[in-house]
Amino acid sequence: MTLELSYIAATSRVDLLTHRERAVLQKIALGQSDAAISAQLGLPLGEVTSLVAGIFDKLGLVPTPYLSRRVLAALTLRQARRPQHVPRPRPRPGEVATP
Rounded CA gap, 48 and 36, in Å? Predict the structure, then answer.
C-alpha cells in the first residue's frame, strides 16, 4: 500500500478512537512527548505509551524513512478535521439548478 493510500485509510479510522485516544492524538499533533502528555493529562507514563501504540495500530500508521508515525498521526488528525467537499450534482440539460 502506498503512503497516500495508507494515509487516506488512516483518516477514515479516526472515528474509531476513544475519547481518551483522541485527546492523546491531539497532544501528539501538538508535538508533545509521551512524558509531557502524561503530565498534562494526569496519566501514568506507561498508560500514555500504551495509548500511543494503540492509536498508531488503530490508524494503521507505518513509519517511512522520511516520516515518523507521530508525524503521520498529526497529519492524519489535521486531514480528518477538514470538512469534506461534496460536489453538487450538475443539472441535466433543460433542468433548473437549485441552490
Answer: 10
pLDDT in tens, the chain (99 residues): 555 556 667 878 888 999 999 999 999 999 999 999 999 999 999 999 999 999 999 988 888 888 888 988 888 888 887 655 445 566 667 666 555
CA dist., res. 14 & res. 73, Å (int): 10
Structure-block grid coordinates of residue 90: 450538475
Predicted TM-score (pTM) above 0.85: no
Q: Which domains does the chain have, with CATH numbers?
A: 3-80 (1.10.10.10)
